[in-house]
Amino acid sequence: MGDGTMGTIRLLGLEAIGRHGVLPSEREQGQPFVVDVSVEVPMPVDDDLGQTVDYSALATEVVGIVEGRPVDLIETLAAMIADRVLEDSRIRTVEVTVHKPAAPIAADFRDVSVTISRSNHE
């Protein structure tokens, strides 16, 4: 596939409601999470979706993970997303940032996030 040229696909600001967190209220009520995903993939030589990663399907998968099984930590959520993304052997590297803009923090803040990077080793 491709001519050896690598490129990056970025999905920024994927929003979903999840029930992740340590506090019972976070599990019961849920809250918004925002996810950014960047993947390094071979670039297609033709104008052919079959030669590259379908970013619509990738977005659906990420949202499904956020809306799925609750975990305590956004670090764990980011790792789950990264691991799932890397199941596609065409993807060489992935960087996932999970934002928790409504985190229970006793201070004024705009965002809290965790970023994880992983790679497929050949």
Automatic annotation (TrEMBL):
NCBIfam families in the record: folB, folB_dom
Keywords per UniProt: Folate biosynthesis, Lyase
Pathway: Cofactor biosynthesis; tetrahydrofolate biosynthesis; 2-amino-4-hydroxy-6-hydroxymethyl-7,8-dihydropteridine diphosphate from 7,8-dihydroneopterin triphosphate: step 3/4
UniProt superkingdom: Bacteria
Family of this protein: Belongs to the DHNA family.
Record-listed E.C. numbers: 4.1.2.25
Presence of the UniProt keyword Phosphoprotein in the record: no
Catalyzed chemical reaction(s): 7,8-dihydroneopterin = 6-hydroxymethyl-7,8-dihydropterin + glycolaldehyde
Protein name, per record: 7,8-dihydroneopterin aldolase
Presence of keyword Lyase: yes
